[in-house]
Specification:
Largest sheet: 5 strands, mixed
Helix content: 40-55%
CATH topology of the largest domain: Nucleotidyltransferase, domain 5
Number of domains: 2
Radius of gyration: 20 Å
CATH superfamily of the largest domain: Ribonuclease H-like superfamily/Ribonuclease H
Mean pLDDT: 83
CATH architecture of the largest domain: 2-Layer Sandwich
CATH class of the largest domain: Alpha Beta
Order of helices and strands: HHHHHEEEHEHHEHHH
Strand content: 5-15%
Amino acid sequence: MPLLRACALLSVNRGSYYRNAAEASVGGRAAVSEAGPAPATTLREAIERITLSFPGYGYRRVTAQLQRDGVCVNHKRVLRVMRAERLLCQLKRGWVKTTDSEHGLRVYPNLLKERGWRRLTGLNQAWVGDITYIRLREEFVYLAVLLDAFSRRVVGWSLSRSIDAALVLGALEKGLGQRHPEPGWIHHSDQGVQYACRDYVERLTGAQARISMSAKGTPRDNAQAERFMRTLKEEEVYLEEYEGFAESEQGIGHFIEAVYNQKRLHSALGYRPPVEFEQLWAAGLLH
């Protein structure tokens, strides 16, 4: 029976289904932790649990999670199973313009051009920011985020009904309240008016940041932040039917803090979650 039909019959929305499946997967991992290769049935069940918990995972991340759980399997076998079970789904995407670069305000040079973030050596050296929209039933709301470019951890976020300076300032204040970057740290964003306005620039100057902006028409220069937004929409927003602002704020906050930062494996971090990566880096266990 299709999932949507089953949820309708049980009066359960998809979000609750996925959250319950994620909790159940924690208790099921012990059943697939084996020294030798996993049997086909057990492997399929383990893959299904992971893809229910993280619907946006491809076969490589699924393989990494299985191996972290103690399952002896390679990515080719996982790919075959996911193809056979039709678990290689393509999640829908949407787009609304949130950047206005025709504002006449000062534009700052790109300090992270040519993939300069790859030269970062530690936390809080550079943060990247972006804005996106979230479609609710009767309105749009807007999300601003800041990520540490070294660990990919979301260090600040803010949700608002208005796409203005207060939106991005909310994310910035949350980040500065939790982290304490040294003078000279880089704040990178696009050329949106929210990031170029006087209030935001003054706050960055007061925090002793160096301001960096992508060139107009070069979204790849801010790829880390934009990739996070895509992940958020594919693995949280598109699977939910938020009733209103409060529910969307709770769901998005849970995804950011409890799922993305704490659990979701990141390929650029050696298939580790951002928080785990930061802990290993702080302990000197990464080379």
